[in-house]
Design brief:
single chain; mainly alpha; 2 helices
Length: about 70
């Protein structure tokens, strides 16, 4: 799953990040209630969101460099 995000385009990355953020918030609410089977899933979701943020940022900086030239 780590490398599966590299093939996505910029808009797809943003959509995927929004989906994961929504799932992460729902998961946090479930943790408060106490109905979670795998608590380590929270860490994995955070890391996936961070990977997506990194790739989105890389696309944005590459686009800014193209505009600057």
């Amino acid at each position: 799953m780590k490398n599966s995000f590299k093939t996505l385009s910029y808009p797809e990355l943003k959509v995927k990040r929004d989906e994961l953020k929504k799932k992460y918030m729902e998961f946090r609410f479930k943790m408060v209630i106490g109905h979670v089977d795998n608590p380590l899933q929270k860490r994995n979701m955070r890391r996936q969101i961070a990977r997506l943020n990194m790739l989105i940022h890389a696309h944005e900086t590459a686009e800014q460099k193209k505009e600057a030239k």
